[in-house]
Design goal:
single chain; about 190 residues; mainly alpha; Ferritin; 7 helices
Length: about 190
């Protein structure tokens, strides 16, 4: 099984960060959209799976934390004179969504594990951004973010443990992580998180 903290099977090339922050304004705008969508995902899971009471409180806290991150990125954008931009389809996420299974329980597990992978990839990439940025305050901001995102990846696996066996989680996470590795390896580098 992939490591619990980092189930990723393929590391991002460190050179990606220089390309991503070459147009840092565009990166910030994409980052804001990612934080907004992360908060919305947590809320949608709460609504869709309201009968799974063990996930509710942790997901409410997560939605609030992601919304707080959105606010922080929005404040950075405003300080730079940037506006929010219309969200465009994320090629990374769209390719990952293609492997979600149907059936209530299968879909529930897959959504939790998909969130694990996305949060883990975000943590990895925020770490690379923090190591590449030169401005001290921005470096510190992205260092805090990558540590938070790494915890979110673990959270979704822990939520799955309330409803699925370790073997079922490990097997499906390994399958999905292998697919994620294939997707990330083929993505074009751009001034965006994915």
């Amino acid at each position: 099984m992939p490591d619990l903290i980092s189930p990723l099977t393929v590391a991002t090339d460190p050179g990606w960060a220089a390309v991503a922050i070459k147009d840092f304004d565009a990166f910030l705008q994409d980052h804001a959209n990612c934080e907004r969508k992360a908060s919305a995902l947590a809320m949608s899971l709460i609504v869709r799976y309201a009968d799974r009471e063990k996930i509710l409180s942790p997901l409410i806290a997560l939605a609030q934390e992601e919304l707080s991150h959105f606010r922080q990125v929005f404040d950075l954008m405003q300080a730079r004179g940037l506006r929010l931009v219309k969200d465009s389809p994320d090629p990374y996420v769209n390719q990952l969504l293609s492997v979600l299974r149907h059936g209530r329980n299968e879909r529930f597990l897959d959504q939790l594990l998909l969130a694990t992978l996305i949060e883990s990839r975000g943590a990895e990439r925020f770490r690379l951004v923090s190591e590449t940025l030169e401005e001290t305050a921005l470096k510190a901001f992205y260092e805090r973010l990558w540590k938070s995102e790494a915890g979110h990846g673990v959270l979704f696996v822990e939520l799955a443990r309330h409803y699925f066996s370790a073997d079922e989680i490990d097997t499906r996470l390994a399958e999905m992580a292998a697919h994620e590795g294939t997707v990330i390896a083929k993505l074009e580098w751009r001034s965006a998180l994915h």
